[in-house]
Give the backbone structure.
Amino acid sequence: MKTTTRNIVAVIIGLFIGGLLNGFIISISGSIISLPKGVDNTTIEGLQKAIHLFEPKHFIFPFLAHASGTFVGVFIALLISKTKKMYLAIIVSVVFLIGGISMVVQLNAPMWFNIMDLVGAYIPMGLIAYKLLKK
């Protein structure tokens, strides 16, 4: 497989696996930290209607999902890729960041969470994965 093709496949697989992990963590979060009564976190509409009921503890798993999904996505992409690893780490991180920005726009989550999530869960996690694999 040519290097460019391999790098493209690496990014796609990293995004896919990172996205799966993100979704899995979100899906189990309500069974670990109970959601407020009547909250449907399976749809964006359900979250929009109930986000005002969330306490700080309800934002732990979304942050963990975003951070770990990005970290694992970058890690997998870099394991598969052959060259341009820093660029690929940035690409995967930025795609996840765009997803995070999309959620900030769609939900009226508290500003402290939006800032923490956008600043701490995406680019830093991608860079940490890159640095771990660089050694």
Observations:
- Residues 3-32 form the longest helix (30 residues).
- The chain has a mean pLDDT of 94.
- The two ends are 25 Å apart (CA to CA).
- Helices lie at 3-32, 44-50, 60-80, 85-106, 111-120, 123-134.
